[in-house]
Amino acid sequence: MKNRRHFLRSSSAFIALPMLESLGFRRFASAASRTPAAPPKRMIFLGMGYGVTEDSWFPSEDQPGTDYDMPAGLKPLERHRANFSVIHQLSNRWSRSGHEGSTFWLTGANQYEGGATFRNSISADQVAATAFGQHTRFPSIQLSGADPDMGHAGHGPGLSMAWDARGKPVAGLNSPLDLYHQLFSPNTTPLKERRLMLEQKRSVLDAVLEDAQDLQRGLAKNDVVKLEEYFDSIRDIENRLVRDEDWQNIPKPEAPIQAPPTGPVGKSEIEVMYDLMIAAMQTDSTRVLTYRQPISTLLTSLGIKVAAHDMSHYSPGERRDASQRRDLAQSELLASFLDRLKETKEADGSSLFDHVSLVYGSNLRTVHTMENCPTILSGGGAGVKLGHNLIMPKNTPLCNAWLTLLQEVGVNVERHGDSTGTLSALLG
Amino acid sequence: MSRIQDFGTVGNGKTNDTEGIDQDNGWIRFATEIYRIALISITYATLSCLPVLAQDTIRVAMDERHRTLLEAYCFKCHDADQQEGQVRLDDLPFTINNIEVAERWQKILNVLNAGEMPPKENKPLPDRGKTDFLDDLANIMVTARKKLSDQSGTITIRRLNRREYANSLRDLLGAQINVSELPTDTSPAAFDTSSSSLIMSSDQFEQYLALGRDALNEGFARQENRDVGFAQRMEAEDGNLERIRKTLNTRMEGHQRYIRWKARIDELARLPENQEAVARMRKLNQGRPPQDFHHWWRELPNAPDPQDYGFTDSRHATHVGIGQWNTIAHLAWYISQKENDAGAWLSIGDNAVLPWYTFQANIPAGDYVVRIRVGANPDVDAQRKFIEFGRRSQGFVHLSTHEVAGTVNQPQVIEIPITHTVGGDRVFFVRERGTFDTGQQSAFKFNRGKQDNGIAPDYAIWVDWAEIVQLPDSEFATPAGLVALKDAETNLRDALQQFAVVACRGKTLPDSLLDRLVNIYKAQRATGKEHQKALVETVAVILASPRFLYLSEPVQGNLPPMELASRLSFFLQGTPPDSTLRSLAENNRLTNPEILTAQTDRLVNEPGFLKDFVQPFAHQWLDMERLDFFEFDHQRYPDFDNSTKEAARQEVSESIVHVIRNNLSLTNLLHADYVLVNSLLANYYGIEGVKGDEFRPVRIPQDSPRGGLPGMAAVHAMGSNGVESNPIERGVWVLRKLLNDSPPPAPANVPQITRLSDQLLTTRERLAIHQKEPQCASCHRKIDPIGFGLENFDAAGRWRTEDHYEYKNQRKSWAIDASGKFHNGPAFANFFELRDQIVSREEDFAAGFAEALVSYALGRPAGFSDRELIEQMVAHAKENDYHAREFFHVLIQHSIFQSKPQN
Predict the structure, then answer these.
(1) Could you tell me which residue, B554 or B338, shows the higher pLDDT?
(2) Which residue among A379, A392, B258, B330 has its CA within the 20 to 30 Å range from the CA of B266?
(3) How far apart (Å, rounded) are the C-alpha atoms in residues B794 and B803?
């Protein structure tokens, strides 16, 4: 395979690209053709890592419906009561690792499938990115807390919440400033030079590809399969280069906000990231966002001295206090994020909130249990019934919820992870 | 016969640490297994010719004696006629040799564990029968999984893991770059040498390119700087005393201003006509400290503005006048100390004085020695006579801890070698050990220490000076990769080929690839880049190529000599083969058994063996990750600070390396009449007469609980939550790691035992619930007694005879009762007898160790096909009194290690 283009073309067989028919677009396109095209649907997944304080966060399962008592841990969200739902009894059946709240949350994968010691599959956000990605400069944006202790923050292996089509981790950005620059800072390198740089990158890829092909020749069958990971990695970069080329003549949008300060920590990091997420949507820079939120630094920024993992055990006293304060802080942050989503207008006068499907939660319920995961759904994008305390049947697959959301925002998929169907009960 | 039944579970990673009854996800995860088994079997079915699998000879079957229980309690509804819920059990085979059967048994296990069957209205299973049934079934399912998922000896190509990658760049270029952004490659279920864990993500390729550039730039920079001969000394007293004096004066003066302002307000407040205003002020100040009365000065007619007294506002005035005043005594006290003008005393947790001494020098990349001249106050406790050294960047990165044997009159010079990379901060710190692991610890130790004089704790450490001196270049040979690139400017093509051969462990690049690399270089030059920059871009491509990144062994059958050298070196040194191994391989002599034995012995004695084999191996084998799961309660365990924790961690690997290097019996790891300690750990263990920072064997009295893993602080700290001991974790750990008898996994989502946390119960009472439910008892009857036998060790591994529980100001104390009985085994009266029992099972321990070695060395879980190898290792070692090196020799000489099997 001397010809890289040929290689790239043939590689498309490896990455099944669904046909990019955005159903959502059509359904919401108004009959009155003079009004601007309906704003696009977007998906947001916010992962909190370690779960919540069980008895003060979850609304009672004995109060299904709209008339439930807002538990202490969710109190800051009271003003949005009509605009979010808490879903009970969603679980990932294969999840067993009680420190991993994010790794399989959006994938539903079985880590040991096929005799592997670790494997994963595509996450719901990346499914959406495949469908929506062609419309925006960034198919998706992955954020991950600047928490030096992410390993002990209850998120588990991974670089962000996102896992690609082959179940490989997708890198996350952890600097708000970097994100700002990527979104809004004009590329000052002259076009000619940029083309040259792209060419150089390509020759690097050509060289390592040739090396890999040469190496592959003498290998046994299992080895060839293993080395395929390397080829996949190169293909991804190829695809990215093609994308860069497509966008290099289109100027970046003007920033609707000021550049963030360097290195905000904990609570202020989450605030700044939320602001940037709003700005990214406002400028239609992306339609899919995930954020793996920091815990250790959040605790520190709240003046809590308990370590994240210790907090997750919340035995009575200091640790429990820490856990409840963290719940509260996260709910406050989420509440202001919802405020901002409602305030920010689309071109047609509707708000970002009306078109977004927002998920907030974790694969970990509380301490280290993984059944009945904390799940909050919000936004009008997926037509989810809001304002409810919704009790699903025991052990309803989380992936059924993801599948429902994906289909409702217009992604043409029939299954996701270990889904067994969609959840009509979620829909209004 | 040794019990070699537990393949694949060593290194199966972390136990979950739910308090109390543990949902141990590190054991093989049950519910996931059947799915996994299903896939494996599909893979096998699609292979055109099935290999002869060693595991075919393994029979996995449920004991026939359980048939009566099924008949009596289940067949009524689940026989051929009834088949309630489409479940039929009367035709269920007891031999499990396919997925379908395994899946049916798994369902039975699940419903019994969940208590779903038999239905409530039917006759329940007898407790005893149910427990035994579940016990057998759970274990059978573990074996079934292994049988059906066995990799039948295949060794697959793998990527260098993060350690090996960093070591390769170090050997090749002399660069020690920061690789922390690469994935860690550790997985709860496998060693970081395991091919299946070593995945490659799309971002990784670009990371490798960037890290390769970093390493090359650093390699070149170090070469350029090697003759600089950098040296700088910094006196600790410089500026320090003046700074403290100045702070004292400023604060005294501020206090005076505050007093004057306050006095004026108090004066006005006494006037009769102002009483109404005073009442308002009192009301406003309700619920606040009395001194905040003055914050409400605006209420008072004609009261002076604090700005007139040099404060920004009234809060600032109180802060300066009262808050800072409290520190004045400490400042004055420091000024009164002797030798404060010749060096600097280190305080605890008071920024105004000197909680740490930091020094910096703008040094280029290279190898240095830091020397610190330091003395201790002879009057403080021995455990305070240690310093912590590290780098200060955004936070404090603690690198090492050192005993201070010198005094102020006769200080000592402590030498610490350091390596400096191109980037990174150049600030170092010295502080008293255990004074700043957390801010809380500082405050606690400060307040505790100031009880004596009411001002501050006595100072323990006095620093005279610190210096940073570059090591002379004669100590370092130019790294091979840089030698290869020396003439790159004139003969690029050859230089690249030479570099590739060194970097890629003997492999050459094809001509066409060299052409491409030369073109990349030319294109870089064409854009105006100078030679070295263009070269870095070009060579970085080699460092991101699969030939460098993958340990590919392109043959089936016996490994070529260079590949054998590679496998041996990555196993025992975590690094590519050195020149000795390479030249033996080139001359085809490495496969000679005697030479191979000699080389194994040599590598075991190399310094890299401790750092790059024993430490990562022990960390993963013994699940030492748990040591970092919890912060230790610094009030309850003030001496178990980070320095002690690190020393305790090191004790484990130092003990292992001692046994291997001296070829002692492996049984010493179960019990020894010595401990491997340095002065810090000896101090913690209460062993006297140990001086210095290096670990060495020290003989201990016969009645000591120390010596061997069951007596190590690290092991017990891992079996705790930082506050209390966790007998379950400890029991499971002993079963898995010492007795090679892993309990099956706990069912998922077991209830938390914290729900009993409001009751005053002893630990035994609290955990008694395990014995009540038959489905818990099936495992906990094995686990809990061992855990209780270790209760004499508290959460920080200190010996204790009493324990207590507190809840809401109530307290219950009890004497530790460590007696117990192995399930279906002997009884023990106390820890010492328990330890004897563990020692008597040295063969099981040896088998577990052998299995872990095989998995680690071969990069895949040990399978049934390795049984013969493991048996040979154990048998041979046993004949030789379990001498630790025998395990290595048998493994390395074995055909499995020397070949590349494929299925």
Answers:
(1) B338
(2) B330
(3) 8
